Amino acid sequence: MDFADLGLSEPVLKAVADAGYVTPTPIQAQAIPIILMGRDVLGTAQTGTGKTASFTLPLIDILAGGRARARMPRALILEPTRELADQVAQSFDKYGKNSPLSMALLIGGVNYSEQEKLLDRGVDVLIATPGRLIDHFERGKVMLTGVQIFVIDEADRMLDMGFMPDIERIAKMLPPLRQTLFFSATMAPEMRKLADKFLSNPKEVEVARQATTAESITQFQIHVSHRLKREALRTLLRNEDVKNAIIFCNRKRDVDILAKSLARHGFDAAALHGDMDQSARTATLEKFKKGEIGLLVASDVAARGLDVQGLTHVFNFDVPTHPEDYVHRIGRTGRAGMEGRAFTLVSGEDGKYMQAITRLIARDIPVMELQGFTPDESEASDVPPADEKRSRRGRKDRGGRERTPKRADKPADDRLTAPEAKTAAPASKPEPQRNESRRRDRREERREDREPPVRGMGDHVPNFLLRPARRTASS
Ligand code: AMP
């Protein structure tokens, strides 16, 4: 099949050719004709399958006839994280370069006034994270009654991050007569039930089996005690022919600690996590994508969907506690027919998480002995590993994981690290509304990069679970 067979217009076909695409990917071949027909779509597809183009290309053609009106976008694309939203915006620019459509990116952590200017002028397409969109709506800066096409992307991630109530609220602001495209990497029964709320007689499209890891990725696990992980990682980085890599940690604090530690040892490393202000996040990601930084130490905010050309390696400094995150993390490498290598450092307490991963991906991950690893115990003990530091401060949750202290280390206002966060709201804005905007931005940040939730209870940990067990007569 050829792109020309899908019913797309000449300008879009030209943009596709300029992007260097020759053949549509399976999700594109399936979804594009259906979307062009105006049908709702329930799509099961992971990032890396060409999913973004599968909805962006037809969307550009469907909108081609109309005209933007002030504050009334004609299409709305919701993304769970700022990075994904930004990436979709870049794709929109690439695929829409021959069309006159305008677009605004509404994400948290970025100055409101620029976004408002664009909205006032009128945009055809809004690409947004849910929190910031609701914020603009409540300020009266955007009306959603003109939306003809509504895209909910990465729906399973949205669900994980607790965005579904926001999305339901947004859906109520849209006209009932619209086209809705709902994409999720997985389609468990609960996801399907949720999709029913938004879709009307959808056509289903599906690519790739759920939870598979690409054959192009060579995977290994390395067993090492927790306190020696950093040294093991350095040895591994020296042994491997690493051009560019993402190193994943489970917690934001550890991302910072590890990035600094690597830099101290002469590695070209930078951190990326949700507590950084948006301009720093964007700048770091840009540098990494351009190859100016070789190693990106990241939390899972970077795991989903980030598309970095030719990433040679992924390292899991921590074993992810949700097995699906493993698939998404290592899926950053081995893309577009290239070979990739993925290594996971496994210490004693991680065994059960590794078992869950191998069960999910239905394959063994071979154990590798680390060549040339002669741990220097004295060095390992000079800086206590993050977990050790935490266990002096915090308590453990039911799964043995450290629980985040109730408040973060800094007072609330300090955590609005972005300079623009302090100037974001115009002076005339009433205080309660300004506080609500800040709270929403902070919630968005926390959701983007939170510690593993307690499954089945949302983020709430009932007090009775945190109380120390009652002593028995024998203890
Ligand atoms: P996505 O799943 O949308 O994140 O896309 C993953 C990567 O595939 C991006 O780098 C796209 O530029 C690329 N891509 C999308 N469609 C095609 C295609 N038909 N042929 C080659 N590469 C593509």
3D structure, described in words:
By secondary structure, the protein is α/β, with parallel strands linked by helices. Helices cover about 40% and strands about 15% of the residues. The chain has helices spanning about 10-20, 25-35, 50-65, 80-95, 110-120, 130-140, 155-160, 165-175, 190-200, 230-240, 250-265, 280-290, 325-330, 350-360, 375-380, 385-395, 420-425, 430-450, 465, and strands at about 40-45, 75-80, 105, 125-130, 150, 180-185, 205, 215-225, 245-250, 270, 295-300, 315, 340-345. It has a 7-stranded parallel β-sheet, with helices on both faces. Helix 3 packs across helix 4. The longest helix is centred in the last third of the chain and has 18 residues, at about 430-450. The chain is globular. Bound molecules: adenosine monophosphate.
For the biggest β-sheet, the strand order reads 3-4-2-5-6-1-7
Mean pLDDT: 81
Structural class determined from secondary elements? alpha/beta
**Major beta sheet summary:** 7 strands, parallel
Gyration radius, rounded:
23 Å
Q: Quick one: how many beta strands?
A: 13
Write the layout of secondary structure elements.
Layout: H1 10-18, H2 26-36, E1 41-44, H3 51-63, E2 75-78, H4 82-95, E3 103-106, H5 112-121, E4 125-128, H6 130-138, E5 149-152, H7 155-160, H8 164-173, E6 179-184, H9 189-198, E7 203-206, E8 217-223, H10 229-239, E9 245-248, H11 252-264, E10 269-272, H12 278-290, E11 295-298, E12 313-316, H13 323-330, E13 340-346, H14 351-361, H15 377-382, H16 386-393, H17 419-423, H18 431-448, H19 463-466
Parallel strand pairs: 1-6, 1-7, 2-4, 2-5, 3-4, 5-6, 8-13, 9-11, 9-12, 10-11, 12-13
This protein binds adenosine monophosphate.
